[in-house]
Amino acid sequence: MHNWAGNHQYGAIRVHEPDSLDSVRQIVSGCRQIKAMGTRHSFNDIADTTADHLSLSRLNQLVRIDRDQSTVTVQAGATYGQLCRELHRQGLALHNLASLPHISVGGACATATHGSGDRNGVLASAVEAMQLVIGSGDVVELSRKESGGEFAGAVVGLGALGVVTELTLKVSPAFRMRQDVFENLPFAVVIDRLDEIFLSAYSVSLFTDWKTTNVNQVWMKQRVDEGAPKFDPMAHGATPALTHLHPLSGMPAENCTQQMSVEGDWHERLPHFRMEFTPSAGEELQSEYLVPRPHAAAALQAIHALREQIAPLLHVSEIRSIAADDLWMSPCYRQACIGIHFTWKKDWPRVRDVLPLIEQQLSPFHARPHWGKLFLMSGEQIQSLYPRLNDFRELMRKFDPLGKFRNAFLDRCLF
Predict the structure, then answer these.
(1) Once rounded to an integer, what is the mean pLDDT over residues 392-415?
(2) Are 119 and 172 in contact (CB under 8 A)?
(3) How far apart are CA 29 and CA 210, in angstroms?
(4) CA-CA distance, 308 to 58, in Å (whole number)?
(5) Burial call 178-211: b when 16+ CB within 10 Å, e when fewer
(6) Cα torsion through 114, 117, 121, 126, rounded to 10
């Protein structure tokens, strides 16, 4: 069995597909080693195992909506696309979504997957409570209100503490959005007005192939009730898109969410791609580095200096902003960040050669890699970037004293 991109083959000898909490408890307690698996959208071995896999695909139901607390409880295997449709029917919304609505809630939260927006934290920042099956088969309930530090440590859990079976997320009233796209914003403007650009709309994404001195596309997603974006790319040399665009130049845009200022519901504008579009095995690889916001401009200039090495291997690069959070293992722990994302051509030998160059350039800026994507940073480098790592290790020892959920990825990165 492979991951979504087909670049990683899992080593499990068995795959379990439970459809109830009791089944999960029985399977977990009976296994020597086990790892939970979501929609297999990670590009590395974070969810791999040489023993047993537990697929969450059949644990995909909305459990309850609590309007008094403004929360929704959902099974961890549900995709955001499934959840958002039901929430919207109930007049509710999530604060943010990733580019693809096809990923699972559990997997996205465990890896600190994010969308974009200066006011928007990683998807896991919406978590208010969680249900976890630990190695003994016992069920642990953690909540923001009652569990203190353990909760902050467990939400971005990297699959290291147990099998997350349910998550309770904060919701708000549903809202309407519009999406505007502009082309060819000069890179010098981006560097000079970076904060202004990212503050100007609810969610902003910059797409570039690093081939020129322009950013190829600017995607601005704005709530209708907040008016028009406050930064006008046309006043700084960009031109408005004359038709719907795909982030990859020359690709058809019918699978992308609607643009051209057409108003729509929140869950049909926040992602870049439609739920109706089912991604096939992707002919791509992905890497991403999260850089503290004070270093954003310098980090982008450092990447720009590598454009001759990067551009031949690249489909597209996306630059987004993410708010700070309080989750121990989130790359945005107590620091607002920009994400510098790379969608690579499927040529791992050449990508493997260029990643150390990128990581070396970004090292002075304390860049943290996305947990679910490709990177080559050493465990020592990664560990130096997480001030609560020792606390997280203690949490692992408490919930998983026998190392039932350990794997090569965790050993390499955390130990």
Answers:
(1) 97
(2) no
(3) 50
(4) 45
(5) bbbbbbebbbebbeebbeebbbbbbbbbbbbbbe
(6) -90
Exposure string (b/e) for 134-168, b if CB count within 10 Å is 16 or more? Answer: bbbbebbebebeebeebbbbbbbbbbbbbbbbbbb
Cβ pair 147, 176 in contact under 8 A: no
CA separation for the pair 264, 195 (Å, rounded): 27
Q: What is the pTM of this model?
A: 0.96
282 pLDDT above the threshold of 90: no
Q: Are 298 and 122 in contact (CB under 8 A)?
A: no
The domain 176-375 having CATH identifier 3.30.70.2520: the answer here is yes
Closest CA to 87 of 290, 228, 294, 268: 268
pLDDT digit string (tens) for 219-268? 999 999 999 889 999 999 999 999 999 998 888 888 899 999 999 999 99
Cβ–Cβ < 8 Å for 224, 137 = no
Asked if residue 382 lies in contact with residue 369, where contact means CB atoms within 8 angstroms, the answer is: yes
Other beta carbons within 10 angstroms of residue 87's beta carbon come to 23
390, two tokens: 């020792």
Break the chain into its structural domains and give their ranges.
176-375
**Tens digits of residue pLDDT in 167-190:** 999 999 999 999 999 999 999 999
Question: How deeply is 393 buried, as exposed, middle or buried, from its count of CB atoms within 10 A (0-12, 13-18, 19+)?
Answer: middle
Sheet of 34-37, strands arranged across: 14-16, 52-55, 34-37
Contact 97, 84 (CB under 8 A): yes
Sign of CA dihedral 315, 374, 134, 58: positive
